[in-house]
Amino acid sequence: MKVCPNCGKRMETDFCGNCGTDLRNIQPEREDVCIDIELNDVKSSAEDDSKAIDIGNQSSQTMNDEFRSATDDLRKAKDDFVKMAGNLAGSLGKLATIKGEQVVSRIDEEIQGMSKPTHSTVKKATKPPKSIKKPNETRDASQAKSLDKTGEINTRDLPSNTSDGPSADKSVTAIAVLVMVVLCLVGSMLVRGSIRNDSSSQPDAVEEIAVEETKESYNLHLEVQYEENIIFSKYEAEVYVDDEYLGPVAQGEVFSDDILLEEGEHRIQFQKSGDSSVDGRTSIDLEGDTVFSCTIGAHSDEIDITGRRIETKEEYQIRIEEEKAAAIEEEKRQAEEKAEEEKKAEEEKKAKAEEEAKEEKKKAKSNDYEKVDLATMENELDSNAAAAKKKYLHKKIEVTGVIDSIDASGDYFNMRDPNNEWDWVGIQCFIESSNQEEQLMNLSKGDTVTVGGEVSLVGEILGLGLDIDYIK
Predict the structure, then answer these.
(1) CA angle 236, 238, 239 (to 5 degrees)
(2) Number of H helices, E strands in the chain
(3) Strand order in the sheet with 303-312
(4) What are the phi and psi torsion angles at 97 (to 5°)?
């Protein structure tokens, strides 16, 4: 395991998967140290998670307790306010009753005052006036006239000199009742608003804690190509993500799978089937729906990871479409090349058939070729080159000899007199067709052959030359 000097990440590859730093010159840590570090990281992460959960639970419990306490206080305040309002209403009712009694008492006094005669106006009478009633009757009649249907005192029938007292008492009573109603309405609104605000704030706090503890989940698509070895290390590999087994993959095949993971860093591991000590590891930081592709290769002591590619789902789809289009173009190109090769082979075959037909015709007309002894031509060239040239140049002849040498390029071969082993002049026979070239490939030095063709060279220095029409 190598530690990146730039970001501190640990990984098996030659390049940091997090920041891209070259790790080829970094010495790997000992395996037991890596294991201890990984175990400590796991323990530390688990402890941090446990602490975070405990803190969240404690905060949630504290907020719940505070919410219940605030709700109880508000309810108690509401009950106290309602009780206070009831007491106030009772007090105001008693005050109204007292004021009513005072008004009635003053009315009685006024009536009694009106019934007493003065010295100048009242005469002695044996009977009381018809308009004057007894005190009790007068009081009942006054109350009946002064009370309306709602139970309030009606001052319209009272004497004018007593109107100020009852009107003032009525105004005081009305104002008190109005103040009581307003206080009740305001208190009820305040209590309801406080309870609503506190009840709505508690779920928000709980929801905020839940958001802190919950992470987004994304889809990870794996595409792993397993290279096939010819002889050694031909074992099957197993695929893991965060120690979760996904499945096996054989050499020469592609492993493909989808897995749902939380956002953050995750470990991807490949190990030899049945032997966890032979493995290869890499990591990926998941921030959204991601496609991870790579190529793995098997070795005796490890699994090599190359061609590491991280793409979004959209980038992966675009790349796949481009690769499909490129594959179609390549197939089309190969098909065109194959058709061109087949066409060329057909043309060559046809040309070869035509050449063979021509040669067969030439062989059939071998009687048209003058049969010449090679030794005779050499003697005539040696005696008089000019006469030999005039006699043989551009003449169709058929001559038999022994192959003395074959050109490395396959353009010609030399032939000597079969009866003279020490013949150093001979005649050069030039190949004129592919069919003749194939025939030459089957010949060897020392073979006796008969060739027919046109004499193309006659000279005392260059010797004799023949353009071959056929080989027998």
Answers:
(1) 140
(2) 7, 16
(3) 254-262, 217-226, 290-298, 303-312
(4) -65, -45
Contacts of 138 (CB under 8 A, 6+ apart): 108, 111, 132
The CA distance from 4 to 265, in Å, is 16
Separation between Cα atoms, residue 371 and residue 397, nearest integer Å: 6
The answer to which of 19-23, 293-297, 333-337, 414-418 has the lowest mean pLDDT is 19-23
Q: Helical H runs in 309-412? A: 313-364, 374-383, 385-392
Global pTM reads 0.34
Contact between 286 and 218 under an 8 Å Cβ cutoff? The reply is: yes
Q: How far apart are CA 404 and CA 410, in angstroms?
A: 14
The DSSP result for 175-234, as a single string, is HHHHHHHHHHHHHHHHHHHHHHHHHHHHHHHHHHHHHHH---EEEEEEEEEEPPPSSS--
3-state SS, residue 109: helix
Which of 88-97, 262-271, 326-335 shows the lowest per-residue confidence on average (mean pLDDT)?
A: 88-97
Element (H or E) spanning 33, and its range? Answer: helix 31-115
Average pLDDT on 145-166 reads 44
pLDDT of residue 67: 79
- Which of 431, 430, 453, 429 has its CA nearest to residue 363? 453
Average pLDDT over all residues of the chain: 78
Using a 10 angstrom Cβ sphere, with 0-12 exposed, 13-18 middle and 19 or more buried, the burial of residue 409 is exposed
Report domain extents, the chain: 30-214, 216-320, 365-471
What ranges in 214-287 are assigned the alpha helix state H? none
Which CATH superfamily includes the segment(s) 365-471?
Answer: Nucleic acid-binding proteins (2.40.50.140)
The listed CATH number (2.60.40, 3.90.550, 1.20.120, 1.20.1530) that belongs to domain 216-320:
2.60.40
Edge-to-edge strand order for the sheet containing 237-241?
A: 244-249, 237-241, 264-272, 275-286
Among the listed residues 359, 410, 340, the one whose alpha carbon sits nearest the alpha carbon of residue 351: 359
Contacts of 401 (CB under 8 A, 6+ apart): 374, 415, 416, 417, 418, 426, 427, 448, 449
CA-based Rg of the chain, rounded to a whole angstrom? Answer: 63
Give, for 292, the enclosing helix (H) or strand (E). strand 290-298
